[in-house]
Design brief:
alpha/beta; 6-stranded mixed sheet; 10 strands
Length: 257
């Protein structure tokens, strides 16, 4: 690689080296090396049981690695607690939508904004104290196309809109890295296209690492793809590269490739 190409390469924000996890003698993840670059969408794909969610849980410290190191913006976070990692800007979503069903879209986002604004521990203040968050909340609602549902309860949203709201609440935390666990799961075609466009826009300002089974979405929006099989990296590169790999076609993509 030339010096110019190296200079043009986006910086690495999240990195793992030699990452491994054993459970009672079973190796779920083994020797995984991963670099997630700024303003890039990185997909983690593979068949069921390949270790994708385990890697997510290791990166976000919901699980402690058996071996290996994890760095976030150059700081070793390998032994940090999940809450400490989240405060440093590593924020994730989950496969099951996690919003407050009885709150409106606006209030869900205002709740999420309380932590970065330092209001989450000031329980004695009157409710109107949260009005200072309205500007940022309204901006997120507009940016993510949620304005028509601003005053609708989350429980009354479609599944796809709930996922968009969840992305909005994670963005309210102003993450350095956004990790999305199967963001398209259970969505219809129209919602998939909407959420894919939102993720593309989100990645203009921060890196996104996503576990995703929808290969059309991966091919359309992801800059880099890492394929896992039995807890190890089988292949990586852009989508065209991994889709052409016979091992990947056999292990995961099959006729879909």
């Amino acid at each position: 690689m030339t010096a110019a190409a190296i200079a043009a390469e986006p910086r690495v924000v999240l990195s793992a080296r030699g990452l491994g996890k054993d459970f009672a003698g079973f190796t779920a993840v083994n020797d995984v090396n991963l670099d997630v670059h700024h303003a890039r969408i990185h997909a983690l794909i593979g068949p069921n049981g390949a270790g994708k969610t385990t890697v997510f849980n290791l990166l976000t410290k919901f699980l402690q690695p058996t071996r290996g190191t994890i760095t976030l913006m150059g700081t070793d976070i390998t032994r940090m607690r999940p809450d400490a990692v989240a405060r440093r800007g590593l924020v994730r979503s989950f496969q099951i939508s996690a919003v407050f069903p009885q709150l409106t879209v606006l209030d869900n986002i205002r709740v999420a904004l309380q932590r970065p604004a330092g209001l989450h521990v000031q329980f004695w203040r009157p409710l109107r104290a949260l009005d200072v968050l309205n500007g940022r909340a309204e901006a997120l609602i507009a940016d993510l196309g949620l304005a028509p549902w601003r005053d609708i309860r989350a429980a009354d949203l479609s599944y796809g809109r709930k996922r968009v709201l969840e992305i909005a609440t994670t963005l309210a935390l102003d993450p350095e890295v956004l990790l999305l666990d199967e963001p398209m799961a259970g969505m219809g075609h129209e919602d998939v296209q909407t959420v894919a466009g939102i993720i593309r826009e989100v990645a203009r300002q921060r890196p996104v690492l996503m576990v995703e089974h929808n290969l059309s979405v991966v091919a359309d929006i992801c800059h880099h793809v890492t394929v896992l099989q039995r807890g190890e990296i089988l292949a990586e590169g852009d989508y065209a590269t991994v889709a052409a790999d016979p091992r990947v076609r056999s292990a995961y993509m099959g006729s879909e490739a």
